[in-house]
Protein 1
Amino acid sequence: MMQFAQTAASGGFAVNETGGQALLSAIRNMRDGIALIQSDWAFANRNIPLGQSHGANVMTKVDTDVGQDDQGFMPMLTRLMESLEAAEQGINDAMRNYQAMEEQGAARQQSI
Amino acid sequence: MAVSAAVTSCATSTAGQPLPEGDVGGTSTSRPSANPSSRPTTRPQTGGSPLADLDPCALLTASAKATLGITAAGERRKILDTRLCQWKVRGPKDTYILGVGLLDKAGIDDIPSGVPIEQLPNIGDHQAVRSKEAGGTTPCAVILGVTNSSRVELQATAGTDVDKACELAMDMAKLVEPELP
């Protein structure tokens, strides 16, 4: 997704306003959904009701690791969120590219 | 993530204290408080939880909501034992998810040991800690102790901006604290 954002930033592709806004809206909805999952998980993670036995203490730690270690659910969600932010930036750049192309085209027609 | 460690740990016996879920707060064996000197600000519980009759959506007053930019009604939910009110606030870049959670049967010392917490100076009359996710990712929560076995959690998400999330959580904590018993 970083490559996508870099290509857009360097003028590699363009998208018109209507298409760009539709894509931005979809990305925003996805990001909102991820934020809700992150919020729910964090509330649950502080309140895992397994009791106070030794086994429960071990399992509480395991449950936390499943969510938080490098390959865990939460870091993956964070990486997805970062990718969506990069995609958003790329689409904004691509919309600016389209606008610049339109202006160049209009200027060329006037000069003919 | 060491699943095998969890399985093999059953090979040796270690004394424990199995308790039903509802008794978690009474005889906590979780990690000691990071700052014992601040403990007196969470009062020993007598009788029922002082949070039992509180509505999490009512803890933010109208002026507090205005300060935080909340315009829509909160959504009441329950996540495990946490009674929660949640609001969405449209920011310039991200949608912030703001939540107020009440725990009637678990205090600050009952937070599982795997959850990273950081001691904060007291907020008003209440002990305060902050919890960020491992790796410093969002969300960020400021947690206020009410009694040894009850707490209030103020949590915010702000996309990938953990500093903004912590700022929002702290703002909520300062606004909610005067409303707490």
Protein 2
Amino acid sequence: MSLLELQDVEVAYGDLPALRGVSLGVEEGETLSVVGANGAGKTTMLRAISGLLRPRAGRILLDGARLDRMPSHVIVARGVVQVPEGRKIFPGLTVKENLELGSYVAAARAHRPQSLERVLGLFPRLAERQRQAAGTMSGGEQQMLAIGRALMARPRILMLDEPSLGLAPIIVQEIFRIIAEINRLGTTVLLVEQNTRQALSLSRRGYVLENGRIALEGTGAELLGNEHVRRAYLGM
Amino acid sequence: MTLLEVDGLVKRFGGLQAVGGLDLRVDAGEIVGLIGPNGAGKTTVFHLIAGFHAPTSGAIRFKGASIVGLKPHAICRRGLARTFQIVQPFAGLSTLDNVMVGAFNRVADVAAARGRAIEIIELVGLGGKRDVPARTLTLADRKRLEMARGLATGPELLLLDEVMSGLNPTEIDEIVALIRRVHATGVSLLIIEHVMQAIMALSHRLVVLHHGEKLAEGRPAEVARDRRVIEAYLGEEVSS
């Protein structure tokens, strides 16, 4: 059984369908990428898993238990945590306060000191800047904070929505290295990216989402070699 | 001919120096890439040039005349337009109406603005989406719309702020082709971009900004080999 499973999930915005029956499974311990064009439904899928959108049909299961009727904070408490696109940190709060808010749910709060130590170990730059207002940091540092905040919730599955967005090449490399490290330390990763090449290189498996449907599925290497993927998403 | 000339540009926000004595020029017909780490001051430089911030000190001349102290719309009317990193079209207006808003910078007549907007919408490849509300456009199309709004103001120099961010490589190739088409119509460009493949291919010259100062400048191939640029910005994977 997959750790996280989507079964024929449909989501619509009013009359406009965004997911048209998506089925996929995330296996415990893997890094899985979902790639696809803008507007394909990738963010919608993450938001549905997080409970921020309600599916019109289909089921979302974590360890066999239905998530798709739970409120978001309960989903977070169960260990499914999203790093939103565009970071969405609290700019006026300090780095440390942002991190502490990541462990707001009771289950995570009990482990706050250990989680904080772990996150600051993973992100030395955040450790140096604990008392700085988060909004004054660079884009790369804010992305690290957004990931660190999510880790404070002690996720079983970390879902990242375009973590490389708007970042300098050297920072993108660092972010991808950190994601690999987080996975190596035992957290399952579900990654949504426009940076198709780096995402698929990092992932054991990937799905290609097109127009709200899964168009392709394979190992990272298979998809990188796939003629359609190369033409449509890699610019080759 | 020098179109844009920036000398000793400084911008301080309280105690924070965002731009520290930058010299920069763009010649007519040129495409110049402005790159650098997040927080290097690139967008601040755009704000200063386009009149959204007043410089602490330094000179900015466009076509030989100082534009320091002019309001953004006045700078725009002289032929210097910019786009924004976070695209914010009028969501409820159609593509056409959004672009017409830009065209009114040059023409007061509705029919003329409409004609101009239609031409530009064709140029950027949004012809099929002319009458749909901007809110229904995908991100890639909203980036095209953002360029169209800038172009509608009739610029000689267009500043593009990360028009490729958030796009996949195939969408990026389409934007690169669009920028080449725009350049072919006689518009010079100053471009902020992190997408290395694209900015290397497009730029005649690259300027690398780091901590508000110029770290390097030169032809793309030279800059990409520069040790300091690799350490501050590119990292080993991109440069190798």
